Amino acid sequence: MTKATDILVVFDCDGTLVDSAHNVVACMRIAFEDAGLPAPTDLDIRRSIGLNPDVAVRHLAQTPLKDAQLEQIVMGYKGAFFKRRLQADHHEPLFEGVREVLEHFASRNIAMAVATGKSMRGVNAVIEQHGLDGYFSSLQTPDHNPGKPHPQMLEKAMAMTGALPEQTFMIGDTSFDMMLAKNAGCRGIGVTWGYHDDAELRESGAEKLIDRFDELPKIVGAA
User: In the annotation, is 12 catalytic?
Assistant: First the structure.
């Protein structure tokens, strides 16, 4: 029987731990407009959250992009996000129940990690803003990994913590997260408060869906 301390719980960031949709949408619109291209719709941008920025931009562009255009938009997006973080009213709130569940897992010595399409700078900003330093044994981002659903981020997190795939749970709000879990041989748990709907999460491989964060300990065997 798997012990609680053998478990690895890996969280997506945007749409799972923090509500960042408003900031992502605003910054992506700015990046496209500054490049002289039509801005994607808010819905399309929300649905692309979780992908690496370069993949998201190509997905959102209405026409094929040249490499220089792609780089301009990606850098524009990152720059807009950096400026936004410096504003006094910038906020990416934690979803309800996040802190309590992280504290519960930490008290049970359960390893936790992050696997996200957000940059390392962005992840560190979230951790600093919400005082989450020390919870996560591994932070995996596009800075040094292929984007979701390539399995490398989960593979690295498992290698760092010694967890096996069958003991590893990927918690996310998009089909990209569930496909990441499937590709790494791990167990995907979908959250219903994010950016893809329930049917998409199930179709992409979610083992279970949760409507509240406090449902998670029982599912992973750490209640």
Answer: yes
